[in-house]
Amino acid sequence: MEMRSNPSVVHPPPEPLPPSSKQPKAPPIPVDTSSVTQRLQKELMSLMMSGGDLGVSAFPQGESIFYWIGTIEGGKGTVYENLSYKLSLQFSVDYPFKPPFVKFETACFHPNVDQFGNICIDILQDKWTSAYDCRTVLLSIQSLLGEPNNESPLNKHAASLWSNQEEYKKMVHKLYEAGEAPHV
């Protein structure tokens, strides 16, 4: 009796061989950063035209449009009034679909800022949307200075002092004047 193969039966392809250390790795997929670059250039122009009037500014650091240094002036009527804070902003190639990484470079005593300058604010985490821009981020952080979220503090000491504004202000100014930069 003759056995014939059935053409309607599909056999799975053979399992691929495991990668060998001698095989060259596939080159990384090239990323088109031109749209991100254009967006950041547009945001920079917008910020230069209006940001300074609002007490916030930011400019690229060096040659890369993906690394910026920002400045936030403390809001009027807050314990941060007349203080100026330097921040670093790092944008990924996924921006604006992912938020920038932002941290304080100037020491900042605040319930939502840790000893390393990391910031806990919802728009840099789960509330991020591509509609936000650098100006929005800086203004939100400036607003956070005067209105902390004491429900989820990074700095528990600052959160506990917040209710005593006189003592809190002393600590803010003490750290600011000491020029203690966040530890890296």
Automatic annotation (TrEMBL):
Protein's name according to its UniProt entry: E2 ubiquitin-conjugating enzyme
Domain of life where this protein originates: Eukaryota
Enzyme Commission code(s) on record: 2.3.2.23
Transmembrane segments: none
UBC core domain segment(s): 35-181
Native organism: Kalanchoe fedtschenkoi
Family (UniProt): Belongs to the ubiquitin-conjugating enzyme family.
Database matches in InterPro entries: Ub_conjugating_enzyme, UBC, UBQ-conjugating_AS, UBQ-conjugating_enzyme/RWD
Gene3D superfamilies from the UniProt entry: Ubiquitin Conjugating Enzyme (3.10.110.10)
